[in-house]
Specification:
about 375 residues; alpha/beta; about 45% helix; binds nicotinamide-adenine-dinucleotide; binds zinc ion
Length: about 375
């Protein structure tokens, strides 16, 4: 089967996202080859290392690399300086030099952590993402945002470090826990809502087949998602013009829900789904979008089994409210909020007062 490819057209150095079966086994030819037998580190978590480490190791050996697998415990707790510190040391012990590369094999946690370590080791060495969660395949592995969490906040320390290539095998998703897969679908719906009305309709038509994780169907969907993210990233690689902010659709209320429900283990994608529906209701109420957007969003998310509300018993509303008010994007009581005037198109607006969002969060939770 032929691989699909999507190019991220960055001005200085474009890179290619390769999508299809056996992408890991073919890493030796898809990723930049080693110039002369250099050391490479595959950073994985224990789960992804166990599942896919051998295939990627073999693929890289064929490309002339001397790869070593380094694993960290699975979970967000690994995205910290306490884990990054020893990783830098491991790269040094393995003899990685400026011609070496770090391969991030796993979900967004591994991608952000390994990317951060690659961005800073020897002031930056090559980095290739090999995402294995749906969230990472459609979102976090493209765009170059890397970093770690601090006790004070998530993603507080980091860098922009664009990968040299992205290798995606949709077949890896077969082993992903159902809840993780479905949470990733929330970002798929987000991309469709902000940029591709045709994709939105295709998802509505094929929802049941999407849930079977048919790798060929997923390869097409992932490619369209990567193309959307790539085009936004190419126009605003380091989030300077504000353009890239449309990718935060649903994330203002989403982040507040994520904070408020963290103790109950809400996943990022689940919080974003709630956020998109809630933000779309505010936009429709203020006349900033077509009236049918909230219902169509909710219908598609539900067809894909993505929950669109949080139980009142599973969120600390005060914490959510405070998180919303402290949102770093809010300046002087208003914020540049992405809205979807009609499905398939997004724009930024400052016409939504923060109070409207706060009251929406309160209503939303009262109903749930
Ligand atoms: N850099 C960005 O632009 C960006 C964007 C969005 C999210 N993120 C970050 O991504 C992180 C979340 O990523 P995530 O949702 O991928 O979580 P994750 O990396 O923790 O992976 C979720 C779980 O799935 C397991 N797993 C991964 N692939 C598997 C597979 N194929 N089969 C079975 N199990 C598998 C992992 O071991 C882990 O336990 C957060 O830290 C978030 O901040 C970054
Ligand atoms: Zn997100």
């Amino acid at each position: 089967v032929a691989l699909r490819s999507v190019v991220v057209e960055l001005p200085i150095r474009p890179y290619t996202i390769h999508i299809g079966p056996r992408a890991l086994a073919r890493a030796g030819t898809l990723a930049p080859p080693s110039r002369d037998g250099q050391a490479a580190a595959i950073v994985a978590d224990e789960t992804t290392g166990q599942l896919f480490g051998a295939e990627l190791l073999a693929g890289l050996r064929e490309g002339g690399w001397r790869p070593q697998l380094v694993t960290v415990p699975p979970g967000e707790a690994s995205k910290t300086l306490g884990v990054a510190g020893p990783l830098w040391g491991r790269l040094a012990d393995l003899g990685l030099d400026r011609g070496s590369a770090v391969f991030a094999l796993g979900g967004g946690v591994v991608g952000d952590l390994a990317g951060f370590v690659a961005a800073t080791y020897m002031r930056g060495i090559d980095f290739i993402t090999v995402p294995t969660t749906l969230l990472a395949q459609v979102d976090s592995s493209v765009g170059g945002k890397v970093g770690v969490d601090l006790p004070q906040a998530k993603n507080l320390v980091g860098a922009f470090h664009q990968p040299r290539a992205v290798l995606i095998d949709p077949g890896t998703l077969a082993s992903l826990p159902e809840r993780q897969f479905v949470a990733g679908l929330a970002e798929v719906v987000k991309h469709a809502a902000i940029a591709d009305g045709g994709l939105f309709e295709d998802l509505a038509r094929s929802a049941e087949r999407v849930l079977t994780r048919d790798p060929d169907l997923l390869a097409g969907i992932i490619a369209r998602n990567c193309a959307i993210k790539a085009s936004v990233v190419a126009r605003d690689p380091e989030e300077r013009t504000g353009l890239r902010a449309v990718l935060n659709y649903g994330h203002t209320i989403g982040h507040a829900v994520e904070r408020g429900a963290a103790a109950w283990g809400v996943l990022h994608g689940e919080a974003v789904a709630v956020g998109m529906v809630a933000e779309s209701r505010v936009a429709a109420r203020l006349g900033l979008s077509r009236a049918d957007v909230p219902e169509r969003l909710r219908t598609l998310l539900e067809a894909l089994h993505v929950p669109t509300d949080v139980a009142r018993s599973e969120i600390d509303v005060d914490l959510a409210r405070r998180a919303l008010k402290a949102d770093k994007k809010i300046v002087g009581g208003t914020l540049a909020l992405p809205v979807v005037p009609e499905l398939g198109r997004a724009e930024l607006t400052t016409a939504v007062p923060t109070d409207e969002l706060v009251s929406e969060v309160e209503d939303l939770l009262r109903q749930a």
